[in-house]
Structure formats: structure tokens, C-alpha cells
Amino acid sequence: MFDRVMAVMQDDLVLLALPAFFAALGIEWLWAKKQFRPVYENQDFWASMRIMVLTVFVDLLPKIGGILLMFVCYDLSPLKDTVGRTLPWWILLFFLDDLTYYLFHRGNHEVRWMWAGHSSHHNSQYYNLGTALRQGVGERASKYVFWCPLALLGFDPVMIVTMLSISLIYQYWLHTEAIDRMPAWYEFIFNTPSHHRVHHGSNTRYLDRNHGATLIIWDRLMGTFSEELVSEPVRYGLTKNITSQRVLDVAFGEYGNMSRDVKRAERWQDKLAYLFKAPGWSHDGPDRRSNTLRRDAGLS
Fold it and tell me: Is 254 within 8 Å of 241 (Cβ atoms)?
């Protein structure tokens, strides 16, 4: 089984796409310079690059373990001889994978311990293709488990990892200000740079919105969609921004914040709440969760 896992790892499409990623990044940098747009900042950019390298190493063991678990689930599935690699099954997998990503990504924003692992993707105050490579470091530990149910449904782990890679490649181009809006029909169905700029916003209106990967329909259906408004430009970053560009602070700083909150709570119920409730919840202070902030501002 380990040989099968390593074969999947070697065929990762994201690695093949890296030259195109960096080529697009260079083009965006030239565009920003020519347009005098403050899209890139030197220290922030290199922090993103260091996070990218760290993520590659942190991701290795969880990914091997996750794919191994997928193969275990697949071998146990009573449907593995039914699901094939024909086009209809690939189309079904596309939608199931996209829905799985939506749920996982939404959890990253609405469960504090998951947010701690995801926040490094959001703690830049700049929005560019370098930010796309500034992945959530800690989230790698649990990410692949969320896709194991698809293997239990009979989908080959090779298909699952391939679809995961295609989804990640699609999401790369969303991290840019160089593209304003796509045609209306495309904006309605698919995730776009405009929708994803909202997702990276710290404005109260935009907090924890637009969690989709390739499709935006899940957000529309489940009430987590927000349009990007010309009247309210997106402010990138966190509601309380970090001040350090040190790689450990960027990658793991939120774990420290969460740990301090857990430590100062006296009741075990409150300690657990700091792990499982949404970021912004407090046992002894104002409720700063995004839905509460929107309600108090009359936005929901």
C-alpha cells in the first residue's frame, strides 16, 4: 500500500504547475509596478515565500498519512468496484470534492483550533499571487482526513488527489487585483478574483464569506456569500493584524493567542469553547465573532 501512496505523491499536479505559478507571479509584479499599484511589499512577499517553503515540509507526513488512510477507506468501500474512472464519475467527484472543500474551508473560519492552522493564509495585508502561496501551515495536519469519506464512497484515492490538485491550481489565479470582474454568468457560478478578494477582507461585511473553491454556488446556497462592493473596498488582513514577519509568528502565532485564551479561562467548558467556537468568542469580554459583528452593524 505504501508504494501506491508514493506513486500518488509523485504525480502531484501542483508541483508540475509551479513554473506557471511563478511566471504568473512575475507578470503580476510587473503589472503592479507599471500601474503604480501597492500590491507587493518586500518583507511581506518574502514572508509568504518562507511560509511556502515551510508548508512543503510540514505537509509531507500528513499528506502521506492522509493518502494512506484514503487507501484504507477505499479498500473497505463496498462501492469501489462500482465507481470507475469514466467521465460521469469524474464529474460527480468534481462536485463532491468542491463541496468537501467548502465545508473544510468554512470550518477553518468557524472553529478556533482550525482557524489557528489556517490564519497564516490570511494574515497578510497585501493581496497578490504571492499570498496564494502563503498557505495555512497548521491546517495540513488535519486537511486530508476530510476527503477520506469520498474514498469510502468508492472513489479511487488517485482520483481524489488529482481533483484536489486541480482545485488548488484553479484557486491560485483568484489571488489577484489585476482582474476586476468576470462575465456575470461566470461570477454567478464560479469563484472569481472578486469573490475571493471578499474572502480575504477584514471588513465586517466581508468576514467569513465566500469559502468556495472552484464553485461559488455552495456559498450562495448556504448563506455565506457576499458581493464585492465598489462602495466598500476590501481591507486585507485580520481584524487585529500581526506586526511581525518572522516565519514562526506568521505560521503559528494564532496558536499562541488561542493557548493564552484557553489558559486564562477557569471553567473547562470555557476552555473547550475557545477551541471549538468561532474566532472572536470570549468568556469574559465582548463577542467579536463575525456573525455577531454583522448583526450589531445591521448587516445581517
Answer: no
